[in-house]
Design a protein that fits this description.
Blueprint: E1 8-10, E2 78-86, E3 91-92, E4 115-116, E5 120-125, E6 131-136, E7 152-159, E8 169-177, E9 206-211, E10 217-221, E11 226-230, E12 241-242, H1 253-256, E13 272-275, E14 281-285, E15 297-304, E16 309-310, E17 315-318, E18 325-333, E19 336-342, E20 353-359, E21 371-376, E22 403-410, E23 413-418, E24 436-443
Antiparallel strand pairs: 1-8, 2-24, 3-4, 5-6, 6-7, 7-8, 9-10, 10-11, 11-12, 13-14, 14-15, 15-16, 15-17, 18-19, 19-20, 20-21, 22-23, 23-24
Length: 447
């Protein structure tokens, strides 16, 4: 439970989210030439082949048909068994927000009177049944337009609609705002006017969450990229942990100050993070490639939280040819994980949203990890009719650009959530503002 009511804002009013209705997501080869043999002036001495009669041509070979591309195996059977939508436009207490554009220019007035409840970039089971920790991203999409958005971890109570017909709802139980009162962050923060030193979306970009057994949180960031360690009250417990070799993004303070060069592209940092089977080692997969690495390969790094050091040996995760990003991971058991990879398309245009399983114990040095397809997010069964406005018999699609959260419940069940990047559109229609969809999936083939 929350250690301090001062740092955790308990929200009394529930945010009720009935399942919202959305529009339907909607060469032939050349024949070989025959050459008639010239009549011999003398009979052939001996031959094992019959002689072609004079004046009669060989019959033309039948045209060769081009080889068809191999047919990929059908995706593993997966069924939608739970569904709830937190609609866009939900807000929590806090100062006005959304006053800056993508270049950091201040508008005459903020767009919103308070803080939007949005941008779920990672989830973990909460302290009680039905409760979920949910990490908010940096606000409105980049460093420059989010300086008035307060970084936080939400605590939701979530009830999905199931085949039993229960009403779905989400209730916001608490908000833990992230802060740095001990001044562990070595660079100037956006707002240092209060002793709490609350962090904003211009200071860090939280993308992945691990809830530890000691009631602390590890958060993966993309601005550094950094690993950030917080108390259950949201206070930063130590300096940001840099990547090995100090690999940095264009949003790192030293790169902005021209004191270093970026080797990781913007928004390609610690998108995927979870705890290994030993309960102390963080496993992180970078969303994007490091400069000089093959474009489809992603580095897998391991950080020992007990010894406070990176473990030697970088592992390799390799994307499919039609995907662009690794966006989350969750442990199955031991050192086996599921990993989300996706393309950069959304809605009807989405072509590749997949979940694979990997086993770190079977890693071969210098070789990409073996992976196995376990979920095709564009071909989910909807036998219970939970996916709204889906034609009977048609699959349920989870076609969001930002399919960013997954949690394994057991070997046959996972929960997934999209980051709606409020007020973005496109997941359920070009003009439809994205909601935050929570989906419960049942796998026919155990992980």
């Amino acid at each position: 439970m929350l250690a301090s009511p001062v740092r955790a804002l308990i929200v009394a009013a529930a945010i009720v989210a009935p399942c919202a209705t959305f529009p339907a997501a909607a060469a032939d080869a050349t024949a070989a030439k025959s050459v008639a043999p010239k009549p011999a002036t003398k009979p052939a001495a001996s031959s094992s082949k019959p002689t072609q009669p004079a004046g009669k041509k060989k019959s033309a070979a039948a045209p060769k048909k081009p080889l068809a591309p191999p047919v990929p195996p059908p995706p593993p059977p997966v069924e939608l068994i739970g569904y709830v939508v937190m609609p866009p436009g939900a807000f929590r207490a806090g100062p006005p927000s959304g006053q800056f554009d993508d270049a950091g220019r201040r508008a005459a007035a903020p767009r919103f009177d308070s803080q939007p409840v949005q941008g779920v970039s990672s989830i973990k089971p909460g302290p009680t049944g039905g409760a979920w920790w949910a990490l908010s991203d940096n606000g409105f999409g980049n460093k420059w337009n989010s300086s008035d958005y307060r970084l936080c971890v939400y605590l939701f109570e979530v009830t999905p609609r199931t085949a039993a017909g229960a009403d779905s709802r989400t209730a916001l139980q608490a908000v833990i705002e992230l802060s740095d009162p001990a001044k562990n962050f070595p660079w100037r923060l956006t707002d240092e006017s209060t002793p709490e030193r609350l962090l904003t979306g211009a200071d860090a970009d939280p993308e992945s969450l691990v809830a530890m057994a000691d009631d602390t949180f590890w958060i993966g960031d993309e601005f550094g990229p950094w690993l950030l360690h917080f108390s259950v009250d949201g206070e930063l417990l130590g300096p940001p942990v840099e990547l090995p070799d100090n690999l940095r993004s264009p949003d790192h303070p030293l790169v902005i100050a021209h004191a270093d060069e970026a080797r990781i592209a913007h928004s390609r940092g610690f998108e995927a993070l979870d705890l290994a089977g030993d309960g102390k080692t963080l496993v992180a997969i970078l969303e994007g490639a490091v400069a000089g690495d093959p474009p489809q390969q992603r580095r897998v790094q391991r950080y020992d939280t007990g010894a406070a050091k990176w473990l030697p040996g970088t592992l390799i995760y390799e994307l499919d040819t039609d995907t662009m990003s690794v966006t989350d991971m969750s442990r199955i058991d031991g050192n086996r994980f599921v990993v989300i990879e996706r393309d950069d398309l959304r809605g009807d245009a989405a072509k590749a949203k997949r979940v694979y399983s990997i086993d770190l114990d079977k890693a071969v040095p210098g070789k990409p990890l073996a992976k196995k397809l376990v979920i095709d997010l564009l071909a989910i069964g909807n036998a219970h009719g939970l996916g709204e406005n889906v034609v009977p018999g048609a699959p349920f699609r989870f076609p969001y650009l930002t399919t960013e959260s997954i949690q394994v419940l057991d070997r046959k069940h996972v929960v997934m959530v999209n980051d709606n990047n409020y007020p973005s559109t496109g997941g359920r229609g070009p003009a439809v503002t994205d909601g935050t969809e929570w989906i419960w999936l049942e796998l026919a083939n155990p992980l």
